Amino acid sequence: MDPAAPIPLARPSIGEQERALIDEVLGSGQLSRGPMVKRFEAAFAEFLGAAHAVALSSGSAALHLGLKALRLPPGAEIVTSPFSVPATANMVLAAGLKLQLCDISPVHLGLDPPQVACTITDETAAVLPIHVFGQPAEIEALTDVCRIEGIRLIEDACEALGTRVNGKVLGTFGDLGCFGFYPNKQITTGEGGMLVTDNAELAERVRLMRNHGRSMDGPWHDQQLVGLNYRLPDLSAALGLGQLQRIDEIMQRRATLAETYRRQLEEVPGLRPVAAEDDGICWFAWVVILDPDLPRDQILTDLHDRGIQAGRYFAPLHQQPALAPLVGDQGPFPVAEAMASRALALPFFNDMTPDQAERVCETLRSLIERYR
Ligand SMILES: Cc1ncc(COP(=O)(O)O)c(C=O)c1O
User: Fold this and answer.
1) What would be the CATH architecture of the domain defined by 248-371?
2) Which helix (H) or strand (E) holds 118?
3) What is the best residue among 159, 186, 194, 284 to mutate for testing ligand 1's pocket, by most ligand atoms within 8 Å of CB?
4) Of 91, 95, 141, 163, which residue has the fewest beta carbons closer than 10 angstroms?
5) What is the DSSP string of 261-272?
6) Which of 56, 104, 182, 236 has most ligand 1 atoms within 8 Å of CB, for mutation?
7) Which CATH number is associated with domain 16-245?
């Protein structure tokens, strides 16, 4: 391999298993509503230890239908984090609910439970934490807050497949958990998502709503709910099932890569790894937080110039032109703003080699030295 070849921020790794399953679907001629979707769902539910898994066309679709299926009062407040991709906020709005933002903790970059407790009002129907970069929000404390308040908990675990907290996998703590399989994720289906829940009624509603309110196998003209087309195609399900069959290997590779980054960067002045340790975390991205006096955007440009596709990651949602007028004066959210301006996501993917990681660390180290 050319040692100077560009290193992408993320890249899927597709194995023989996935190709064989894709061939199986192509050979069957059943490209939608076929058995591969059910096989993927069953394997996913088993991996998570959830009673039900419903395959959908994206992580956003999982968030959207999850919020709809809970049948919350129209306009009810959903407490969520400004430190996320636009999908979380967009889906709250698409479900006809009110976005109520709350600041994050600088430790795990997820919703801060004491601040959440203060943000909840009589109009709050649910809390929607985001497990960013694969790192868990304080999910046990958030579960307690929701139980005490008698409100719902929806986990945006789109970036956190495989991460465990005290032996329990993320996505299974709340009323429902949402996963996304965009090609930068731990496993991919190209585009796709999954909703998991232990609530049979909720799962059934989501199953109907993903297919215009109709059963996937029942009479085609029997529409029971208002819904959308959020079906996952069988070719995508085949890719997902093949990836899931390799999940142990994928998690091991990501753990090894995280360990390499941590070892090489831990002592570098001017930055800190996003989490104090990697225990139980299946990283989606490996992120460092730069000291505030370092020019993060210039360092990003310099990395790009050297063929290293690092990323800045989240832009605070409340500062986005589309959302600012809706959020109004809910802020400021100083931790989310500071973290968004200092976070640097390093290339991180299953097939990344130790040499590539070494080159990233060496280049970053020299740039930090230059700007300190
Ligand atoms: C935290 C988070 N939430 C939601 C989503 C939305 O997933 P999708 O792109 O599959 O709609 C993503 C994916 O980018 C994400 O990272």
Assistant:
1) Alpha-Beta Complex (3.90)
2) helix 113-119
3) 159
4) 141
5) HHHHHTT-TTEE
6) 182
7) 3.40.640.10
